[in-house]
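Tokens in:
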């Protein structure tokens, strides 16, 4: 019986994380929604011949967030699993900053509602 060693058993999984992420609701902000982006791509190298086609990706995001929000802050994460075990994750970041709404912001929104 021959056994394989070295590069012949290595398998590489890469996810560029290029898909669009949903916007999430902002509570108490000058904007009602905030866009999201992945921090980076993800790669995993299997050195024991495991089928990397079995890797699953799950997105963990809150239903909403409260202002103020800083661009580049962590909103959630994309978690990667292989055979039920977590093998890594990538942070999901806020794509833009959202300031806390003040009195005049709410007044402007109210006027816009009644004028439309």
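Residues out:
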């Amino acid at each position: 019986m021959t056994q394989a060693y070295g590069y012949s058993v290595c398998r590489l999984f890469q996810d560029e994380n290029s898909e669009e992420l949903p916007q999430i609701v902002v509570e108490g902000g000058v904007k009602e929604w905030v866009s999201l982006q992945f921090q980076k791509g993800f790669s995993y190298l299997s050195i024991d011949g495991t089928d990397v086609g079995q890797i699953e990706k799950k997105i963990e995001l809150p239903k909403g967030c409260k202002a103020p929000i800083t661009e580049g802050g962590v909103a959630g994460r994309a978690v990667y699993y292989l055979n039920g075990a977590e093998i890594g994750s990538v942070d999901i970041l806020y794509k833009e900053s959202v300031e806390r709404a003040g009195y005049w912001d709410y007044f402007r929104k109210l006027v816009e509602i009644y004028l439309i």
